[in-house]
Design a protein that fits this description.
- The complex is a heterodimer.
- Chain A is of the alpha+beta class.
- The longest helix of chain A has 20 residues, at about 250-270.
- Helix content of chain A is about 40%, strand content about 20%.
- Chain A is built from 16 helices and 14 strands.
- Chain A folds into 3 domains: about 10-315, no CATH class; about 325-440, no CATH class; about 445-505, Arc Repressor Mutant, subunit A.
- In chain A, the strands form 3 sheets. In chain A, strands 2-5-6-9-1-10-11-12-13 form a 9-stranded mixed β-sheet. In chain A, strands 4-3-14 form a 3-stranded antiparallel β-sheet, with no helix packed on it. A two-stranded antiparallel sheet of chain A has the order 7-8.
- Chain B has helices at about 15-20, 30-45, 55-70, 110-120, 160-170, 185-190, 225-235, 255-260, 285-300, 315-330, 355-365, 365-380, 385-410, 430-435, 445-450, 480-495, 505-510, and strands spanning about 50, 80-85, 125-130, 175-180, 195-200, 220-225, 270-275, 305, 410-415, 450-460, 465-470.
- Chain B contains 17 helices and 11 strands.
- In chain B, helix 7 (about 225-235) packs antiparallel against helix 16.
- Chain B has one domain (about 10-315, about 395-510): Amidase signature (AS) domain (Amidase signature (AS) enzymes, Alpha-Beta Complex), CATH 3.90.1300.10.
- Classes of the chains: A alpha+beta, B alpha/beta.
């Protein structure tokens, strides 16, 4: 499928002429043990269609029963987002036909969400340094996920042009919380950064609550970006597009930026924006038109008659509020102090989405600086090269801590550690297994090392003389020679000691 | 009147059969065979069954006999066979809901009602015919052909549960399960001279009941005596964690009430006659039997009060918005993607999922089902929701208030169950509104969730066909239905000199 690239206006010009308004809809899959309305396991993966029952398959006669743990999670999310919690609310049916929807209606919430009217503050780095931006939350409601379609054949992976489609209903019925913001206005040129920061902030908050795995690449956190433009200063809302399933933090920012440039070009040339769903293409960095979505689309919502209303008692809500974990901002301030990070270091860590990873690595025994160093340099570079998220790299914080421990023990050095990362990321096993298999251990055999030192001294008599004369700094040249001969697998500190012993 | 032991087994009530089993007069296997033979002999004329499970029933009967031998009975009805309306799922047994769209589907699970029947030791004879997805009052809307009324084979057996009522009326089963959304247990009971009970909404689990209208549907007993209904009610009733709308309370003491009521003493019971459910629009012979029944209640000591329920006149209209709305959504799942019928469009090499859905639904659903899907889709559409679905919900509230006020004045309410006796097959097929009007007296109970029973009241003067009296009670007071119902039944049978159904007359009609 070829897309004719639309005209784009430069981001800067677009923002001179238009004000963007954004609405972010985030779907979070809860990590509850069982599904929203039945007892099937809600775990990710599993052979297709093995985690199903009459209810999540929507078989005739089956009935839903609400998962109270999911309700609890929904309330906690609502509270963490400063929402009011409904004292009485219902589920509703959202009716539409799609093969991956077992009942051809989704059991969701409509005009009676469990949580509503909240807000949360996100931090971005603006032109004049860090800024706080308040995002208002319209609602957070409970619903069930649909099954997952796999379209086989065709070039796009979408249903059009596919030879056939397969549906896996393991995902059908997994509890989802949909969190919807009010229109985010006034962010102007910061709008894409606010979008990204909001999603990153939500992820951190949800992780802190322990309610979701929040893995964007596995779809346990999915973001739709609604965006519209209005003439600068008009204070109006323009026609919006809804860009679906933008599945990484980076893409959230890029997609928002792209839509601003695309819509600005259309509006500036006198065109109008079509209210539609758009697809984000990670590889090409563009959005393309999906189905047209007019306001006339009618889901014929009505209250789910098979379920009784959810009426959380005020006592329960207050209990849950009291037991909420420390909010992300407070937690970050505490961690920064504990770890001794500078403001910049902390900001970089959070901005890279590495905070939980760094925290876990430190918890696994690494020093704060070492944990930060590996995630933000070595691993961030690799994630960037692969166009993926840090959290998606196939390495655990525990493994990172273990590699650092090997460095601390002197078994390897930093240079070798990079090769250990290569091995672990390539699936060659644990850090120890990679060290063994690749033969990466630092040579600590005094005989071999001594011989190499002797050879280096002999080959560089003038350097040796300088050291004998007390110019210890010159030892670097000899250390370099030895390390080169040992192909890096030597403990540089020990080499230095050996050189100085011989030349003192 | 014949003594119990001289009555052929298949003509006896379930309570009597339980006694015969206990006395060693028969075995469950023998009994089950007798009913299977009866089905073989007469169901070609009646067509009450869509599927007969002789093997399963006999296996269950043999297991019951073994339990009896070792003294480990599971219920008062252990070993007494039962028929189940085809709208309840049965593991490994076809469940079609009277629709082509479910032809060949074998459910992988039992409805809770079916599980409870099995757990109580009742052999399941088979699945009974019904209007497609329970949409109708005559069983003529079954995709597998109509069921005929055993009293007159050219007449309808009521609906949607005409199969269950006809099976019980024609001695093909002593007991059956029906479901009642707007009268589908009670109206067939009335026109076949049998007893039908719609319990309080939430009194019997709906898990495994293929929903027409979830907020109205309720499963219940179909029997020939009030006591049998109570015994069956005890088996299937009670809380079920799989149905969030089921009531977490013990089943009311229905068996005890039925036994007490049979004494025929209603001293101090206040019986309300609902002004709106009678008179104009009711067949004279029906009204006459009803009035006589009320006189009998007076003789038994009941105090009669006239009550008005002014909002009942809106019940039918509200029902025909709520029911199709829920049904249109419930029936969306029949899309050929996962189970049931799949029809491929002709002349299309690689049809899309949407095309297959469209063609299958067009071929698989009958006209009445399509009519209700269209009605419901319309009523729920944005811009119409408030005027239709929303307004209908308000009417439901008003009807519930009417009931509340009426039950301040009376312990139970009574009315004719249906405005007419059984009409002729085909007579109302082209006039849906006339068909819908047949449920005018039964629908208010569904809208308000209160329980109701239909008890045979005799035969209408003008056509000699059965008439039913409906008794309604407040929610959770199902026991009152049984007390008053059993009393009325006892008094009437004393008049008639035995049960309403005359076996000789019946067999003559079936041999026609």
């Amino acid at each position: 499928m070829t897309h004719t690239a639309p005209e784009l206006m430069s981001f800067e010009e677009a923002l001179e002429r238009f004000d963007p308004a954004m609405g972010l809809e985030v779907h979070v899959e809860l990590n509850s043990a069982t599904k929203m309305f039945c007892g099937c396991p809600a775990s990710f993966g599993g052979e297709p269609n093995t985690q199903t029952c009459p209810t999540c398959l929507g078989l005739p006669g089956s009935m839903p029963v609400v998962n109270s743990k999911a309700v609890e999670s929904a309330i906690r999310i609502g509270l963490a987002l400063n929402c009011s919690i409904a004292d009485w609310c219902r589920f509703a049916r959202k009716n539409y036909f799609y093969p991956d929807m077992p009942k051809n209606f989704q059991t969701s919430q409509y005009d009676e969400p469990i949580a509503f009217d909240g807000w949360t503050d996100v931090e971005i780095v603006g032109e004049e340094g860090p800024e706080t931006f308040r995002v208002e939350i319209e609602r957070a409601h409970m619903e069930e996920d649909t099954g997952k379609s796999l379209h086989v054949g065709g070039s796009t992976g979408r249903i059009h042009g596919a030879d056939y489609s397969l549906v896996d209903y393991n995902r059908a019925g997994i509890p989802l919380i949909e969190i919807v913001t009010r229109p985010i206005m006034g962010a102007r040129h910061n709008a894409p950064a606010v979008a990204r920061a909001y999603v990153a902030h939500l992820r951190e908050l949800l992780l802190g609550l322990g309610v979701s795995d929040v893995r964007m690449e596995q779809g346990s956190l999915r973001c739709d970006v609604n965006l519209s433009l209005a003439p600068a200063g008009s204070g109006q809302l323009g026609t919006r597009t809804e860009t679906k399933n933008v599945n990484s933090l980076r893409s959230v920012e890029r997609a928002a930026r792209y839509e601003i440039s695309r819509q600005a070009a259309i509006l500036a040339s006198g065109g109008s924006i079509l209210q539609e769903t758009r697809h984000w293409h990670e590889d090409t960095g563009v959005t393309t038109s999906g189905r047209e979505k007019s306001d006339a689309e009618d889901y014929r919502y009505f209250p789910e008659p098979d379920l009784v209303p959810v009426a959380p008692s005020r006592e329960w809500v207050e209990e849950l509020r009291a037991a909420l974990p420390e909010p992300p901002r407070e937690r970050r301030a505490r961690l920064q102090a504990d770890w001794g990070f500078s403001d910049l270091e902390m900001r970089d860590t959070v901005g890279a989405g590495a905070l939980p990873l760094v925290a876990e690595t430190i918890a696994a025994g690494a020093s704060p600086q070492a944990a930060r160093k590996w995630w933000l340099s070595e691993l961030a570079r690799r994630a960037n090269e692969q166009g993926t998220e840090l959290s998606a790299l196939p390495i655990t914080p525990a493994a990172v801590a273990r590699i650092q421990a090997l460095v601390d023990e002197g078994a390897i050095n930093d240079k070798l550690a990079r090769q250990v990362f290569d091995g672990v990321l390539a699936g060659e096993g644990t850090p120890e297994e990679v060290v063994a298999a690749r033969g990466l251990a630092v040579v600590s055999d005094e005989g071999a090392l001594g011989d190499a030192v002797d050879r280096a001294i002999k080959a560089n008599p003038d350097v040796a003389d300088k050291i004998r004369d007390g110019k210890v700094a010159a030892a670097g040249a000899l250390i370099g020679a030895v390390m080169k001969e040992m192909r890096g697998q030597a403990d540089a500190g020990r080499v230095r000691e050996l050189i100085l012993e011989r030349l003192s | 009147m014949s003594t119990p032991t001289s009555v052929p087994l298949i003509q006896r009530s379930a309570a009597r059969l339980a006694e015969a089993l206990a006395a060693g007069e028969t075995t469950s296997v023998e009994l089950t065979r007798l009913f299977l033979d009866r089905i073989d002999a007469v169901d070609s004329s009646v067509h009450a069954f869509l599927h007969v499970d002789a093997e399963g029933a006999l296996d269950a009967a043999a297991a019951s006999d073994e339990r009896r031998a070792s003294g480990e009975l599971r219920s008062a009805l252990d070993g007494v066979p039962v028929a189940v309306k085809d709208v309840l799922t049965t593991e490994g047994l076809p469940t079609t809901c009277g629709s082509k769209i479910l032809e060949g589907w074998l459910p992988p699970y039992d409805a809770t009602v079916v599980t409870r029947l099995k757990d109580a030791g009742l052999p399941i004879l088979g699945k009974t015919n019904m209007d497609e997805f329970a949409m109708g009052s005559s069983t003529e809307h079954s995709a597998y052909g109509p069921t005929r009324n055993p009293w007159a084979l050219d007449r309808i057996p009521g609906g949607s549960g005409g199969g269950s009522a006809a099976a019980v009326a024609a001695f093909m089963a002593p007991l059956a399960i029906g479901t009642d959304t707007g009268g589908s247990i009670r109206q067939p009971g009335a026109v076949t001279g049998t007893v039908g009970v719609k319990p309080t909404y939430g009194g019997v689990s709906r898990y495994g009941l293929v929903a027409m209208a979830n907020s109205l549907d309720q499963a219940g007993p179909v029997t020939r005596t009030v006591l049998d209904a109570a015994l069956l009610h005890e088996v299937i009733g009670g809380h079920d964690v799989m149905d969030s709308t089921s009531i977490d309370q013990p089943v009311p003491p229905v068996e005890q009430s039925a036994r007490e009521g049979a004494i025929g003493d209603l001293d101090g019971v206040r019986v309300g006659v609902v002004t709106e459910l009678g008179g104009e629009g009711y067949q004279p012979g029906v009204q006459e039997r009803f009035d006589q029944a009320v006189e009998l209640l007076v003789k038994a000591g009941a105090e009669i009060v006239q009550v008005t329920c002014p909002n009942f006149v809106h019940a039918l209209a509200a029902y025909y918005l709520v029911m199709p709305s829920e049904a249109s959504s419930n029936l969306a799942r029949f899309d050929a993607m996962r189970y049931g019928l799949r029809v491929l469009p002709e002349g299309v090499e690689a049809p899309s999922a949407e095309e297959v859905m469209r063609v299958t639904r067009d071929a698989g659903f009958g006209d009445e089902v399509k009519r209700r899907i269209i009605l419901g889709t319309y009523a729920l559409s944005s811009g119409y929701y408030d005027a239709y679905y929303g307004q209908a919900q308000k009417v439901r509230t008003l009807i519930s208030r009417d009931f509340e006020r009426a039950f301040e004045q009376a312990d139970v309410l009574v009315s004719p169950t249906a405005p007419t006796t059984a009409f002729k097959l085909g007579e109302k097929l082209d006039d849906p509104l006339a068909m819908y009007l047949n449920d005018v007296a039964t629908i208010p109970a569904n809208l308000a969730g209160v329980p109701g029973i239909s008890v045979p009241a005799g035969l209408a003067e003008e056509d000699g066909l059965p008439v039913g009296v409906q008794i309604l009670a407040p929610a959770l007071a199902d026991d009152r239905l049984y007390r008053v119902g059993a009393a009325l039944e006892a008094l009437l049978e004393r008049q008639w000199g035995g049960p309403l159904i005359d076996p000789d007359k019946l067999d003559k009609e079936l041999a026609r």
